[in-house]
Amino acid sequence: MSDMATERDIRIANKPARIPLRFPAPRTWWLCFAVSLCLLILFFVAATVLLLEGIGVWGLNIPVNWGLAITNYIWFLGIGHAGTLISAMLLMLGAHWRNSLNRFAEAMTLCAVVCAGLYPILHLGRPWFFYWIAPYPNTMTISPQFKSPLSWDFFAVLTYLTVSILFWYIGIIPDLASVRDRARTRTAQVLYGLAALGWRGSAWHWARWRQAYRITAVIAVPLVVSVHSEVSLLLAAGPIPGWTSTVFPPYFVLGAAFSGFAVVLMIAIALRHMLGLADLVTARHLDLLARFLLATGLMTAYGYWVEVFDTLYGGDLQDVETLLDRVTGSYAYTYWSAVIFNFVPLQLLWFSRVRASPTILFLVALSVTIGMWFERYMLVVTSLYRDYLVSSWGSYAPSFWEWSLYAGMLGVFLTPFLLFVRFLPVISAFEVKEALRETGDLEHA
Amino acid sequence: MRQLTGKTGRHFWRSLEELWQTPDGRRFMASEFPALARNGISINRRSLLKIMGGSLALAGLSACKSDKDEAAYPYVSTPENVTIGEAKWYATAVTFDGYAQPVLGKTFTGRPVKLEGNPDHPMSRGTTDAYTQAALLGLYDPGRSQSPLHFGEPAEWSAFDAEMARKAEEFDRTKGESFRLLTGPVSSPTLLRQIAAVTARWPKARWHVCHPVSDGLQRAATVQTFGRPLDLHPAFDAAETIVSFDDDFLGPGPRQTRNAGLFADRRRLRQDAKGKTRLFVIEPIPSATGSMADERLPASPVEIDRLLRAVAARVGVAGVAESELTGRQMAWADKAAAALLAAREKALVLVGRYHPSATQALGLLVNDALGSFGKTLRFTDPVITVPPGRDDSLKALVDDIQASRVSMLAIIGANPAYTGAGDLDFAGAMQKVAVRIHAGLYQDETAALSHWHVPLQHDLESWSDARSVDGAVTIVQPLVRPFYDARSAHVVLENLMGRQANDRELVQQTWRETWRENFDARWRQSLHRGLVDGTAAGFLQPPVIHRNVADADGPASGLSLCIRPDAGVWDGALSDNAWAQETPRPLTKLTWGNAILIAPKFADQLRLKTGDQAILTAGSVSVKAPVWVMPGQNEATLGITLGYGRRAEDSIALGLGCDAYALRRSDSLWHRDGVSIEPTGTGEVIATTQLHQAMDGFDFVRTVHISALAQAADHSEPPSFYPDRPQQDPSWGMSIDLDLCIGCNACVTACQAENNIPVVGKELVAEGREMHWMRIDHYYEGDVEEPKSYFQPVPCMHCEQAPCEMGCPVNAAVHSIDGLNLQVYNRCIGTRTCSSYCPYKVRRFNWFDFTKNDAESIQAMRNPDVTVRSRGVMEKCTYCVQRIAEARITAAKDGRPIRDGEVVTACQQACPTQAIVFGNVADPNSAVSRRKASARDFTLLEEVNTRPRTTYLARIEDSAEEEATG
């Protein structure tokens, strides 16, 4: 290991800590931030209208009394899972290359979980009573109904949010200290200092920190599986054709990982481009993410196939009818959009040259994100619009205020994420350093 | 100015406005400065309505007071003192199309909250139709006319009285020359007595009747056959074979309750294998009767006449010339005739009252040939009295107006400017009359053209009398003090003669004259029972005096149009009634509008599908409306219903549907030949509650052939993962007999009234957000040209293994120990999981706050025993849990178990065929348990294994093809 190389590596590794203090792309950032602030305002407008007028401003009805809100709830939560998987699971597996990705993936998880958590509350008929789902001592002497998947949804999202915050925060503490040390202004020193919880980098600190970080990771990984299995039960527990299927939990978890990796890939490429992080988020990282995307995508495709096979093998008239509705009915476009967006561009990832091209990777990931959204929409709507009795068939089209809330929710997602990008180290500097020390040279890794 | 002169000291009146504050002052102003009074002095409409709203609540309270001169007698117990929260029942009637619909009104502290059929009245037997249920909303309707209008401006009754007094003097001099009175159909003995008094006092005055859904053609047929006008009274309970030539006797109308009840009696005999009954129906437009038929054949109006001739010839009516029939029709005629001949005097042939009188007369001759007179078909004198010698009364009036023979026209309880046939142009003619007076419940099209509009009282707030379809008189007693500054039709008629009167005294006078003695006791008893003894019209045995059969019409010229009353709003009389508007029409499930009904094959030719707009042209008149593709309709016939295309500005019906009256001609009110239809290429929003009606091979409605009735059925339940619910005694359950349901919507509207169910309007119905707890699904099965048609009422199934209960995170959907699947509104946070999981989709969600902005009068109408739901909560059928609770409390007080039949749900109570039975399923001897033990019992979506407490009895099929194939 030459001195020259070490110096360069340290410069690279210190880069993330310098970004919040001397931001490299202020103009792009401000542009993005302005857009996301507009979206955030739209969110507040849409939510206000919703809260004042009632859920009727949406396009829901009987039979389709769940629509865009539940679709987006599942979608956002699914996206979030990739952050946890990348961070916690790869940490436990000792995959050091994760260090370039985990910080912003975790931040993305946090933002996504917040969005996912807001949706079920806003979609309630009486959102101001959302806390009745929680088991708290009350004068009404009633407790939640624990057979309901919704009770467990509540716990799942809340637990997941807590653990995600902890995991992300514990992970960022050493870097906050690093930023503190480099900060020039007094305000920045105080703020970063407070956030760093008095981190001095002593061996005790590191030992305690490592314990805490690993324990949280061990808790977080099974949560991915349990939370999204739980979410799938929201549909699968109902005796509705197209929902009541045992394949749903694994199918949902894999789909969640699939959509999440797609979003991580998109963010990685965007940040790499915007902040000039090509040295840190290298071609190898993109290649690995693409492989993950391909793998989880193929597993999700298997889920699709199993669902169809299951229905046809079971031969239940109502189930077959629902399958036909999905494939040929008035919402067939959602099914075929899901299939095409999810799995067709994905096949490009078999080629290593494609995996080396950030632009194509970005487009494939975008396609998957859209495809997975269609899949959630398809699952919710096509089962409800035609269930058992033909007399209660209906149709559903999201209203203006539903779309507004969706666009606004992207603001809720992007605004804190952009603030994170601007003010916190987007890449785990100390872990990169650590990795460099252990492996010798990042370039050769 | 008494109020000024009477005061001493400094009591100056500062302005006319101050003077206007007192009624006396207003009266003074009205007489002194009519022009000023007409414009009103800073009484804006809004503040007036506010005051009226406040007075409503007071009106309710003031009715608690028992007033000596206006004693109304409660049905069950005399009001020693009123207990708050305890309902009182009064027998009265609401009029529908001139006929009394006998009801018991349930009132809480002076507020009527529900109407039930009068069980003591043979025409009701405790049941009602949907119109009668909706009458309650009519009483509370805040859109009702509330004060007199003079030239469209609020006016005082005193000004009206003054003008009428002047007019009366004038007519006394001219003997009523050029005075015309126009009323709706009248059966009220008091009103008839008053009208007779008018024509006696002013011999040159004339009385006309405006009856848009009149029985004129049926009367003409009886005149032709018997030489006198008669009403027909088919005895469906005695008929073994019924052949209906487009007579929708089970369909909407004033006779529906009676007919359906008798029809169901006969069907029950067939179910128990104690009697035969087969129904043949031939009709151009599918109807409720057609869907109950064992054999049904679609045919155009002209073909119906030919088929009747064929049947007549086969049963031996002399002098019938047969015309050409297709092979299928010939076979059908053979089959029907054979069945008729087999039944002989137990056969019944009916011809629709909208068909030409010659056709109907031939129908009478067929009955005569079969010997059914007096057995299955009986006659009485007409219940509705029409002006002597004026069958086309309205046309005669228009002719008189055009000939300048009318100087004053008083219209009471009719809306001829809207309901007049298109070719009469009544609205145009009316404007030639110098003085035009209109008394009505609403400021309708006729009111807009009148100089004076005076508000009439609703039946439920006034004294009157009326005859039901059997002729029996019910004395109409008010359930509540009048809400608004309105008068009864009887009083207005007295006003026209320059007199003041009291409606109660007018009615009493009639009966004092009729009874002569023992008045008080008889009056009291009549009010008590809701029926005046001995007033039912006696059956007559008129000899047939005319047996000539008219020649058949020539071949039909092109496309024909059938105009029919609407199953929701009738002739437009219920246009302003939101319950009626939102009631899904039995076959189309259409709400808030009408449509051009068209046969599927013909629609295909024109490339029209349901919801496409088309122009319908008859003669020189065209209307634009959406089309509805109607399976089972005759290909050469279009259908349309009356009651839409309203033009009154304040009406909730403004802008809905198209006006079929414009297509009518006074000489052919019900059928037009040679019409044409042209697609416009655009679509219209139609609000239907059921988008898909084909059963698609599923077995939601099950049928059993009559030959297989005796076979035992397997009632074992499939195994379940869930533990069985413990069965308490009582455990509630329901059984709905699909062999009896005629899809009439009485249950739907009764449920709406009982359970404070809001209406949501056309847009929200179109979005799938209707709130009815009870719905009647309608299914077709088989060939789209001639499908079988079934009704299936669907309340909550009250599943024992209810998915909704599992889904609810906050314990809002719970199971009660007596087997009810309950919804606890104040726990509900609106996740809607219960509805997503419900296989029957019977749950309804409050998408907005549907109840908060209700007018105060609507709030006063609500059933105090049922929670009013707010925004964001789920609701659904409760099996009328409030009625169960009431029975439980009564039984507990008496220290006994709840008796079978003690709990009657609102839907069950209203059902004219008693298709719904409710009771304790834990008691094997209860009526509902006996029904559930039937071989016909089946569970909707049994395969989902939710173990519903509501089950169905399969429809019985008795068609020859079924037997051959199945």
Provide a quick synopsis of the model.
Chain B: This is Quinol:cytochrome c oxidoreductase iron-sulfur protein. In chain A, 72% of the residues lie in helices and 0% in strands.
Descriptive terms for the model:
heterodimer; A: 445 residues; mainly alpha; Formate dehydrogenase/DMSO reductase fold; 15 helices; globular; disordered C terminus; B: 966 residues; alpha/beta; N-terminal domain of TfIIb; Rossmann fold; 6 domains; seven-stranded mixed β-sheet; six-stranded mixed β-sheet; 32 helices; 19% strand; Quinol:cytochrome c oxidoreductase iron-sulfur protein (chain B); TAT_var_transloc_signal_dom (chain B); 4Fe4S_Fe-S-bd (chain B)
Describe the structure.
The complex is a heterodimer of chains A (445) and B (966). Chain A has 15 helices and no strands. Chain A is mainly α and 445 residues long. Chain A has a single domain (17-439), classed as Formate dehydrogenase/DMSO reductase fold (Up-down Bundle). Mean pLDDT of chain A is 88; it is low at 441-445. Chain B starts with a helix and ends with a helix. Chain B has 6 domains: 2-43, no CATH class; 69-140, N-terminal domain of TfIIb; 149-211 and 386-529, Rossmann fold, CATH 3.40.50.740; 216-380, Dimethylsulfoxide Reductase, domain 2 (3-Layer(aba) Sandwich), CATH 3.40.228; 559-569 and 579-687, Barwin-like endoglucanases (Beta Barrel); 733-963, Alpha-Beta Plaits. Chain B is α/β, with parallel strands linked by helices. Chains A and B meet through helix 5 of A and strand 29, helix 26, helix 27 and strand 33 of B.
